[in-house]
Amino acid sequence: MTRDQLAAALVEAEVCAPHQARMRTDQLWRWVHHRGVTDFDQMTNVAKETRARLAERFTLARPEVVDRQISRDGSRKWLIRFAPGIEAETVYIPDVGRAGALCVSSQVGCTLNCSFCHTGTQALVRNLTAGEIVAQVQIARDDLGEWPSDREDRRLSNVVFMGMGEPLYNLDNVADAMDVISDNEGLALSRRRITVSTSGVVPELKALGERTQAMLAISLHATNDALRNELVPINKRYPLAELMAAIRAYPGLSNARRVTFEYVMLKGVNDSPAEARALVQLLKGVPAKINLIPFNPWPGSPYVCSDWGTIEAFAAIINKAGYASPIRTPRGRDILAACGQLRSESQKMRASERRRLAAS
Ligand code: SAH
Ligand code: SF4
Description:
- By secondary structure, this protein is of the alpha/beta class.
- It contains eleven helices and eleven strands.
- The protein has helices at about 5-10, 20-35, 50-55, 130-145, 170-180, 205-210, 225-230, 240-250, 275-280, 310-320, 350-360; strands at about 65-70, 75-85, 85-95, 100-105, 105-110, 125, 160, 195-200, 215-220, 260-265, 290-295.
- Strand 10, helix 9 and strand 11 form a beta-alpha-beta unit.
- Helix 4 packs parallel to helix 5 and helix 9 runs parallel beside helix 10 (about 310-320).
- It binds S-adenosyl-L-homocysteine (SAH) and iron/sulfur cluster.
- Iron/sulfur cluster binds near residues 112 and 219.
């Protein structure tokens, strides 16, 4: 819940009168999002009767972590069960951003099917709620031992919406979740350290910027419509010219707040020097940095990663044109936690099937 939703829920549940709602919200907020408590009885400055009332009507329990893997490189991946049959993955990557980044999922599965992405092979099961997105951050904080959340030495400093799903097809929940995780009295992750990556849902870009002030990342991957239609099929609906116009109009764009363009390196597909030059042309005048992502294979994937020399030559061309072009070191490949490798076994079910599963 956002602060407003929490205040309304407390009044509705008769935990407090409307004129006390703000104060009560402030008090509970500190416990939940600053301290990370999972039991109302830990709220020592709340009267016993009030704690009992809260426990009757609400829960602070985390969703269940059904699997946890740690990579040789220190990345961690959690498979989280939000409800029966509703599972998604979250990854913590050390030494990214200021200290370390958490890659969160916004949907279980994805409606889009980019040809190089493992998540794209899983049909959309459903959107995650704002609470389920926030819970991913809380679970990471639990596991990293980072409560209270304003610790100087914290290892979770950045959040990237680069896990499963297309965040702009779930913008309401993503925006609410960002309100919660960026709140200074709580998880206190600065909006400037929260990045939302999209495959290019053009009509939602403006709303994303206005509502969240998120740093923007665009999954570009190709510099002409013919190839992008093949790799990122949403391009058929919103072709490059429209996408680039919407990016140029992204609220708050400046040299201090540049767009990140993600570009996956696929051997013999999009990695020629001519394409690097086309990329420079395409981005002319856009405050940008280009993140080259070595392709991460997954079981049955139809591509091969470009050779290292090819990636470096590609980076050099972009760099010479004045753009930062870091090559993203693959992290967590050994546990299928790298970009584009996330997936869960959850499937779309009829509501009746899901009820049966929940009851069993
Ligand atoms: N749906 C959003 C958020 C996911 S971000 C989006 O597409 O932007 C995940 C990033 O990893 C995207 O840039 C995606 O294009 C990229 N990616 C997907 N599969 C990949 C793979 N196998 N290897 C490397 N990068 C991949
Ligand atoms: Fe969905 Fe993004 Fe994967 Fe494309 S790259 S299938 S939009 S998660």
